[in-house]
Amino acid sequence: MANSLFEEKLHSDEFLVTTEVGPPKGVDVSEMIHHIDILKDKVDAINMTDHQSSVMRFPSLGGCLLVKERGGEPILQMTCRDRNRLALQADLLLAYSRGIVNVLCLTGDSIDVGDHKEAKPVFDSDSVQLLRMIRTLESGKDIAGNDLKGAPKFCIGASVHPEADFIEPQLVKFDKKVSAGAQFFQTQGIFDLGSLRRFMQYASQFDVKILAGIIVLASARMAQYMNANVPGIIISQAIIDELAGVEKGKGLQKGIEIAARFIKTIKEENLCHGVHIMAVGNESIVPDIIEAAQLVVAPR
Amino acid sequence: MYPSMYGNTHSYPAYRKETATRERSFIPPCQAACPLHMDIREYVDLVAQGRIMEALQVIRSGNPFPSICAYVCNHRCEDACRRSQVDKPIAIRALKRFALEFGGDRMVQVEAQTRHPEKVAIVGSGPAGMACAYYLRKLGYPAAIFEAHSELGGMLRVGIPRYRLPREVLDIEIQRLTQMGVEIRTSTRVVSLDLLFDMGYKAVFITIGAHQSLRMGIDGEESPGVVDGATFLREVNLGLKPSLGERIAVVGGGNVAIDAARTALRLGTHEVYILYRRSQAEMPADPAELEQTLQEGVRIQSLVTPTKIERQDGRLKVTCVRMELGEPDASGRRRPVPVEDSEFNEDFDTLITAIGQAPQTPGDFRVQIGRGSTIQVDPITLSTNRIGVFAGGDAVTGPATVVEALAAGRLAASRIDDYLEHRYPSVSKEEQETLVGDLLPETVEMIRKTGRLDAPLLPAEARIKEFEPIELVYDWETAVNEARRCLRCGMGAEILFQDKCATCLTCLRVCPYHVPHLDTKGTIQIPVDQCQACGVCVAECPAKAIVLRKPYDRRHVTEELDHVLKSATESKVSPLIIGFCCQYGLFGTGTLANLWRAAKAGIWIIPVLCIAKVEADHLLRAFEMGAEGVFVAGCGEQCARESTTSWVGHQVQKARKVLAEVGLEPNRLRMYVPSAADANPAEWLDRFVEQIGGLYLASVIMQEVKVDSR
Amino acid sequence: MIVAEQKPLQEIRRMISPYERVLILGCGTCMTVCDAGGEREVSFLHNALRLAQSKGGNEAHRFLEYTLKRQCESEFLETLVDKVGDVDAILSLGCGIGVQAIAERFPDTPVLPGVNTSFMGMSKEQGVWDERCAACGDCRLEDTAGICPITRCTKGILNGPCAGTKNGKCEANKDMDCAWVLIYKRLERLGQLEKMRRYYPMRNFRAIPRPKRLVRTPVGVGEDNG
Questions:
Q1: pLDDT tens digit string along A30-70?
Q2: How far is CA A230 from CA A53, A112, A193, A194, A226, in A?
Q3: Tens of pLDDT, residues B660-707
Q4: Which helix (H) or strand (E) holds B626?
């Protein structure tokens, strides 16, 4: 019995498509609502990022509420960077009570990469411990062992990094997340299908769904910037060259083309169970990518 | 009241007072090996600093006739020198000669006053007698030297050839004795000591030397054409020119034998052979002199000894037998044994015997004679069996060295003083430990190997033409560079305040020579026999627990700095620039000497004994007392110690950081380290002065400098 | 070793500005070893302050220098008894413990901190100190092959690594090794990788409540223990 529409789709054999929306830095949510509106029927679920890259923003939980309000299927991205175990459990209780049951459990980027560099990093928990925390709540107790007045039920996932340069520790982590109860994984940006294939050879033994992360690049400079500064991203020189090769103004077009190419290949070759399209800052082009990749989402 | 380095007069000392001002240093092996215990380490260091006059003073304080030793000493110090563990020993004797000549030793006047009535007679005027006379005069006793020959000097005059010891040198020393008031009676042979006592002398020192040649004891030894070495040398040294013929042989292997051989060459003999009964390697002569002898063309026949001499047709037919080395004898050397049926004959025009000498003491002296015809004395008091009669030198030891004789003469003077003052002759218990020990391989590896710079010699062909001195004196630069090779044994660092040491391991990590180490109890030890006295750990120790053993080294920089700052601030010349310049090597000899001479008004040089001793504190102090610019000038690649430049750089960086924090331009503090031999420090200094001048003007205009504040 | 760094000169000057007679007090233990507050640094700071004063002009301080073996022991502090009367403030170059110990012992003399106490760490090469221990009170180095994830991982997570590791370095500081990569490699070398595969629950942040106290009960003397 699935706890959410998204979970239902996880149980099916459909090729899944998710994307993410970044909340604004401020209280003017009009643009975010617009993004939600143009995406909600084209994807199976929408992630709401949680202070992505440690930049302070409108909270993901708030964003998920808006997704729900607008009729979309939200995935709550929850990091361990900013809240201790009391706050995390409390937010989970609130999320469930408002019908937000898909949770992506992340450790969170470090404070140093963000814009509040002197803040206190919390990290009372890490991603694996958060997954277990959720399962514990589902059992009717909080993690201190106290009974809950009403237990939640979630569909939980985590992230994985198939393109890491030193893969073994990542696999150990992946195992732990699976054991902790993760049902689906959204990977870091995939730019080399070979490493995705190798990873899937290992991961397919587990009863989990893997969605390949697809990042839309707008220019060679953006690619280089992400390489240098965004944690977990490794973009190959071939892609950078491809982006550099186009005339000014056509970078984004090229980026969309590259992204669509990846998605098509993944779908045709059945490499994994779906894709997670990341175009934060450029959410409006996601429908174009979906179209270019000829993805069709089953109606709800 | 001018505030000193360590805070104002009311401050508490940053460290507790040292328990004693005793020198916590060890006697280095050179000093221990020298019979006169001269402070060799000190004067070599002074030469390295270019302070030749002071080096001369140190030399003169330990040796009554340093000029003689500078020519002929057998330099036991060099044999003991630990530098030989790295490459070759320091050329100490040659450095001593340099110090004497450049320091103007000939000009030195010596004075003495008479404070006692008792007269002392000295029989014999060799080095022991001369030294005894010198020290007796210093103690205030009237002294008289009785010499059988017409001139003073003993073996120095009649034994050692002129090409080794120029006669002018000897005469200058004798003249000084006269200046001191020593009464001299030449051509006076003493036959009875009783006569001397009758004449009113209260004590006698017998130092008649060992001039009687030993006989070989073979047939034909009395033949004409056979002469003993001592007699031969005496005749030549007193001015005779015996004709020896074309082909001569000298029998023996010691210094007398090779002196005789080389003298013969200079008299015109072309073929000179040395016949020695043992192997060449075992010849007791000085190896360097042996080398010179061979260069001059003397040929050595080793493992050969004459057995019979016959006079035939105006020449000597000498029968020799070959020897082989058998079992060791009492001296530890293998005894030569004749090889059967190996006789052969050789013809020579002259044969000189030089197989040893012995003293010839008149029986009338009534002193006890022992083995080798030597006079027996009590080793502590140098007294013979007759009360008031003392003896020393070759007459007591048998043929030995000049410096041993000098030491004996010095000791005799103080023992005679004890005797005349009725003092109990005590043995001094104050014994500083001698520094012994081998350098560790990892230390030797890091020591800069420059190779020994020998004093120049005349070429062999030039040498044998006449009796001019064969060894030339160093030039300034070579002498200083040779002196800088000294390892400064025993002058290194020590942890003076063990309770302050936090065992932070800084000294262990910064030492370029891997010297500080942890002992089994986890305490840091800086072994005195390994430390190269570079001073880096002293400057870097965070607890200021390490000092240099020589008290002078410890205070030197701060005292110089205080002194200069006082003068500089009083002079009120602006802008004031202070330079910490290395005193060694470069400073004394070349590149940095220009700096010194080019020092213009307003630039004050503080000489430091290696810039490794400059600490950040000193640099800040200079600025605090009004310096507009400060520089540190060192020897760079030429420094005798490793890594000093980079560690001083660290101190400079530290000081610069503070300058920036107090609003002074960090560029006011610079380091100057010439890398090429032809770098021009004067040019650099001019630019620096200009730059500082500019900054100074700017700040005056900005009225940030209170011109009257200094 | 407690490692600290001397405060910038400007800050020290600002702190001492109300006081005329200042005792610069060094510490002969940790602060000497990390070269932040030993006798040499006391003397150097003294010289720097005097230099600053001579260039600045309007301050009029008088400085005294002294160094204690350790500032955090009352017996050593007793030697200051006859000195505190002569000063208006003590500028301590000891770690935070020392500063507080002095303030407690001499409550009538203002005590100023001259260094920023930073961490507990070790020096692997001359002049470089790295943090190694966070004093969490719940040491788990057995599970991580002797590499502390709390100090050496920026996020301090126990089920590492995170996805931000690149070329074995941490996303937050590219000069820092990713602790979990180090842990993986060393566990592999020891043949103990199963330790990394285990699930580690959340840390007990109250292993000992703050401010922490440790009491060692002495063994009873003269009792019949049998």
A1: 999 999 999 999 999 999 999 999 999 999 999 999 999 99
A2: 8, 12, 20, 22, 5
A3: 999 899 999 999 887 655 567 777 878 888 888 888 777 777 765 555
A4: none
What does the alpha-carbon distance between residue C68 and residue A49 come to, in Å, rounded to a whole number? 55
Chain-chain contact of C163 with A232 (C-beta, under 8 angstroms): yes
Give residue B354's domain range: 212-358
Domains of chain C: 2-118 (3.40.50.2300), 135-197 (no CATH)
**Quick check: B2 pLDDT over 80?**
no
ipTM: 0.84
Cβ contact C66–B14 (<8 Å): yes
Q: Rounded CA gap, A125 and C32, in Å?
A: 38
> At a CB cut-off of 8 Å and minimum separation 6, what does A71 contact?
A40
As for how many domains chain B has, the answer is 5
Q: Which of C162, C188, C196 sits opposite A107 (nearest CB)?
A: C162
> Could you tell me if residue B520 is inside a domain?
yes
The string of pLDDT tens digits covering residues B221-239 is 998 999 999 999 999 988 8
Are residues B201 and B221 both part of a single domain?
Answer: no
Residue pairs between chains B and C whose CB atoms are closer than 8 Å? 102
Tell me the C-alpha to C-alpha distance, in Å, between residue B653 and each of B325, B620, C69. 67, 12, 28
Instruction: Report chain B residues whose CB lies below 8 A from the CB of C32.
Output: 502, 504, 542-543
What is the CATH number for B674? 3.40.50
Which chain C residues contact residue B541 at CB under 8 A? 40
Q: Please tell me the predicted confidence (pLDDT) of residue B648.
A: 92
3+ Cβ–Cβ pairs closer than 8 Å linking B and A: no
Handedness of CA A80, A86, A89, A92 (dihedral sign): negative
Chosen for mutation from A109, A120, A123 (greatest number of chain C CBs closer than 10 Å) is: A123
Query: pLDDT tens, C51-105?
Result: 999 887 667 899 999 999 999 988 899 989 999 999 999 999 999 999 999 999 9
Dmax (CA) for chain A in angstroms is 62
- Contacts of residue A180 in chain C, CB cutoff 8 Å? 199
Domain presence at residue B597: yes
Does the CB of B708 have a partner CB in chain C at under 8 Å?
A: no
* A236 vs A239: CA distance, rounded Å: 6
Instruction: Name the residue in chain C with its Cα closest to that of B664.
Output: C55
Do B272 and B344 lie in a common domain? yes
Chain C residues close to A108, C-beta within 8 Å: 155
Residue B169 belongs to a domain with what CATH number? 3.50.50.60
Domain boundaries, chain A: 16-291
pLDDT in tens, B67-80: 999 999 999 999 99
What CATH class has A16-291? alpha beta
**Which residue in the set C38, C51, C56 is minimally distant from B658, CB to CB?**
C51
DSSP label of B383 = B
Q: Does B630 touch chain C (CB under 8 A)?
A: no
Is there an interface between A and C (3+ Cβ pairs < 8 A)?
Answer: yes
Token digits of residue A165: 């340069």
Q: Is residue B14 part of a domain?
A: no
Of the candidates B252, B341, A126, which has an alpha carbon nearest to the alpha carbon of residue C159?
A126
- Is B709's pLDDT higher than 50? no
Same domain, yes or no: B299 and B330: yes
CA nearest to B608, candidates B637, B628, B588, B638: B588
Find out whether B247 and B349 touch, Cβ atoms under 8 Å.
yes
Q: Are residues B612 and B659 in the same domain?
A: yes
- Does a structural domain hold residue B248? yes
User: B644-661 and C9-16 are packed helices; what angle lies between their axes, rounded to 10 degrees?
Assistant: 50
Which CATH number belongs to the domain containing residue B526 in this structure? 3.30.70.20
CB distance C183 to C145 below 8 Å: yes
**Is C107:C28 a contact under the CB 8 Å cutoff?**
no
